[in-house]
Input
Amino acid sequence: MPPPMAPDSAPTDPASREPLDAPPAPTVLAFLRSLEDGRLEADLDATLRECVAALRRHVTTSGGKPKAAVTLKLGLTDDGNVLEVVGSITSTRPTPVRQRNIAFRTPGDGLSVQNPRQLPLDLAAPAATAAPVRTPDHAPAPLRVAR
Output
C-alpha cells in the first residue's frame, strides 16, 4: 500500500519520482540552443560552415571526394539533483594535396633539390653571333576572297 500523500503534494511516478504533472522536457535541439546561452549552437553552426567551405576549397583546388566530420560531445556529470553539462566541438577537415618533390642527399646528410653529383650547366644567354633575321623588301600581297 503506497504511503499517504500530503494534501499539498502532487502525485509522483514511482520509477522516476518525478511529478506526474511535470511539464515535458525540452527537445534535444531546444536543449542544445539553451546551453551556454546559445554559444554552443552558434559555435557548432560556425564549425559546420567552416567544414563545408573547406570541402569546397579542396574540390576546387585538388578535385576528388574529400571528407570532413564535425563531432559534438556532451559531457554529463551527475551531482545528485543537478547535472553538469559541458559541450565540446571538434572537427576534421580535408588536408590539402601537396605537390610531390624530389630531393638528393648531400654529403653532410642534408637535402638539396639539385643533384650534388651532377655538374652545373652554364645556361647563359647565347652570344650575338647568330645571323640577323631577314625581312622581305616588299609588302605582302593582299588577300583574295574566294567566291
Notes: DSSP finds two helices and four strands in the chain. Residues 28-92 form one domain.
